[in-house]
Amino acid sequence: MKRLSMLRAWQAAVSLACLVVLFLWQAEFRHRMAATERGTQGSLGLAFEHSAETAVGRASHQLRVQAVDTGSTAAGAVASGALLRFDRPFDPWRRYAPGEAVDVALMRAGAAPVPLTLRAAAVPVPRADAADSLARLLLALPAVVFCLVLAFKGGRQDAHRSLSLCFLAMSLNVFVSFNYLPAGLLLSFGKLANLATYPLTWYLCVRFTLRYQCYLATPSRLWITGAFPAYRVLAFACSAYALWFGCGFEAPGLGLLTLAVAGGGLVLSAASLAEGGRQSSGQLRQRHRWLLLSIMAGAVPGMAATLPGLDAAGPFGLRLAVFSCYAGLLLMYAGLAYGVLRHRVFNFQFAFGRAVVYSIVSTLLVCCIGLAEWLAAPLLNDPQSMVRRLGIASAAVALLTYLAFHLLHHKLEHAIEKLLFRQWHEKEQALREFIRRAAHITTPDRLLAAFAAALDDFTSCAGAAIYLPAPDGSLRQSACTLPGAPAGFTAEQSRHGANRGQGLPGILPGQLVMPMSHRGRLDGLVIVGARIDAESYRPDECEAIAFAAQQVGLDLDALRLDQLERDLAVLEREAAQHEVAWRLLAGRRAGVRSVVTTAGHG
């Protein structure tokens, strides 16, 4: 009870924090929309060094000027290369209102700072600023949603709580660069929260990867868990130091400390997931790959965004580095949530195979369309052509292209699959050939033994066990090539555990459990052993095994019906014989009775 109340309290605290984030979000959104509708924003006409674009990782509030606009109010007092310090710590990372006064201090070596008051001139809102701000606002919403879903759906698990808090921290990336909020409490709170939670985001990510599953104490795992306490101290120290900087103080070495926390978090998270993937098998290995890929998709572009060489213009007016960073974060959000919340994740081999097939088929079809266009060009470009004068050239080309696409698409796809994935197709064809031959097997024992052997061939000797119902409602093993398979299941277990092995004792990770059912009646179970390469079964393999189990179950029903018909015929013959015997016996009794009656009369 106490544990449940603590969980409820934690969920309430997370919900309250999400409400605070959404309140800050709507305030930033309102001011951004006001600037967009106005079409102008304030600018001091100063361009600072590249590293001044975000407060995260900064060590000093003194910013070096790279360029000064000629029409700026600072043109006469500030020159290129000068050092400026804003009176309000977060003024460099916000967009001003037109005409707003901004107090700065011109720093001079060996002399007192010179106070200056600069006026923000009205300039059009750049497309890059509008796109950057909108991207950060949109990214915050899925982070909040995933935070709440994980908190309420998986809050009992420590790993899910860590990931939920990680999403909460990432939702504060709204304040990672510039903002439209005016100077005041909301801006300061948002910026301070972002500075404090950025190092903790990596700490929570590492904590999630370490506690995602129960792992064996291998040397690699012991090294990772041994390094985690030191990393925890480093992350919290960086968070406290960043708050010190956000309060307006200088923080020498904060940039290197932040880089060490981010790099160390990435290394520890990747090492933990990679080592966990080596220990696991089947679906769990797929999940580790998903999580590793998702973290790398979000972290690598974000770190690459610090490189000045990636400042080329990208889509929607964003710089290429910024666009890659936001796209990577979106992929990371979706990948982490999918890998944790989804009951089943798709197989990488299957996804790669389908991508290769579709890419080749699409390329060939585009080439066919180009060839058709090249062949039709003389007819379409010749003004004296009868076809063009009749106005049917374009329609004919479109119709022929459609018909060719319809005829070639399936054949090309099938041919490419056979060429690139011959082994997969040969095994599937062998299993389907067995299903066709299974209808001619006349005894259940031979059918089940042949089915187990066919599954062995299909799964490269992974093993299989087949269970059929007993008179008492339990399931008893009827054919088996799977070492260590249970001898049977009770009626209660078979009722509640027929859904992919849920509730069945003795089922190991990576093993498949396929029901043989007909019209809602469970006719048996098929257990297929884990793959010998410790990978999970591909969706097409699961579909083929499920289809085979269903068909064999129907064949068993047909054999039972045949046996019932034979038993019924035997019973009918016995009944006819008994009827003849009764008639003969009745005739004899009637003859004896008549003889006795005649003798009595005599």
TrEMBL record:
The chain crosses the membrane at residues 134-152, 164-186, 192-210, 222-245, 251-270, 290-310, 316-340, 352-377, 389-408. Residues 554-581 form a coiled coil. The keyword Transmembrane applies. The keyword DNA damage does not apply. Keywords: Coiled coil, Membrane, Transmembrane, Transmembrane helix. This is GAF domain-containing protein. It comes from Telluria aromaticivorans.
